[in-house]
Amino acid sequence: MFIEKARLKKPNFLPYIILPILFLVFVLINYVFSAGVDTNAMIQTYITQFGKTPTFVMLMFPLCVGFVFMIVYIQFLQQLGITRATTSRDKIDWKRIFFSFFLWSSFTIVTTVLAYYSEPKEFILNFSWNKFLPFALIALVLVPMQTSFEEYLFRSQIMQGLGILSKTRWVPFVVSSVLFGLMHIANPEVGEMGYFVLIYYIGTGFFLGILTLMDEGLELALGFHAANNLVGALLVTTNWSALQTESVFISKALPSASTDVLIPVFIIFPILLILFSKVYKWNNWKEKLFGKLEISLNNDNNSHF
């Protein structure tokens, strides 16, 4: 079991709260200081001064540093080990990561191309090899680091720590999902669409939490999250989103409550869950999402880190 496997020599909650507390304090401070500030206007100023790709690097850099620190912390300070922080399996299942990545990448590409050909007036063709290629190479490195940091923070550290503390599955499932959504509260999309868009972010948190608990590991969530941010950054951007990049297209469409919030959360994500459940033969949903945990006190001296 994914949460149970994360126990240390004793089921101690403290090693799991250091990084989450530091990060959530950082998010809170950032939100307080950004209150009343037009985040999109600030990003536009950076883009005017430095360009899209340097601005992209500046926005991604803190989370990428967080990812490096996260790996060092898990491996050497917490001594949990990357494998046990990632999966209940004996080793990380890279096939699961790539399957999830290519599934969501394919869906995103196909739907974007269909949208372009059905409503070409809503898009600007922005492609330029001189700008796209350097950006793509940078994004291929930085985006998986950024998304992996968020997955290890919310679906590993917070989920496993709260599971050990509460001895339940539903507490870490709900809390980590809601916190994941609220982390995005300072995004320009919130300023553009209002707090209604948090339904999408929190809904995505629940979707990723279900993937993690039902599949007993982070692999599917890691692949989906990386595909969502990377392919999105490479393929299409807007003038009001958090990541404004040297993408292939620029969308002129105004944000839509149904297209951008309701359809993904209440239609697409459930379909994906059904698909994953068929591929990986998930069962016992109620127990895996809301059941109690039995955290033993035995030492795990033979475990490999």
Task: Tag the structure with descriptive keywords.
3-stranded mixed beta sheet, 3% strand, globular, 13 helices, 305 residues, mainly alpha
Q: Cα-atom Rg, whole angstroms?
A: 20 Å
Shape: globular
How is the main sheet built? Answer: 3 strands, mixed
Going across the major beta sheet, what is the strand order?
Answer: 1-3-2
Structural class: mainly alpha
| H-E order | HHHHHHEHHHHHEEHH
Total number of domains? 1
Q: Write down the overall mean pLDDT.
A: 88
Q: Give the beta-strand count.
A: 3
Helix-residue proportion: 55-70%
List the helices and strands and how they pair.
Blueprint: H1 2-5, H2 18-34, H3 39-50, H4 52-77, H5 82-86, H6 94-118, E1 123-125, H7 129-166, H8 170-182, H9 188-193, H10 198-215, H11 219-235, E2 236-237, E3 249-251, H12 257-280, H13 285-290
Parallel strand pairs: 2-3
Antiparallel strand pairs: 1-3
Helix pairs in contact: 3-4, 4-7, 6-11, 7-8, 7-11, 8-10, 10-11, 10-12
Mind explaining what this structure looks like?
- The chain is an all-alpha fold.
- It contains 13 helices and 3 strands, in the order ααααααβαααααββαα.
- It has helices at 2-5, 18-34, 39-50, 52-77, 82-86, 94-118, 129-166, 170-182, 188-193, 198-215, 219-235, 257-280, 285-290, and strands spanning 123-125, 236-237, 249-251.
- Helix 7 runs antiparallel to helix 11 (219-235).
- The longest helix is centred in the middle third of the chain and has 38 residues, at 129-166.
- The protein is globular and about 55 Å long.
- Keywords: Membrane, Transmembrane, Transmembrane helix.
- Residues 133-231 form the CAAX prenyl protease 2/Lysostaphin resistance protein A-like domain.
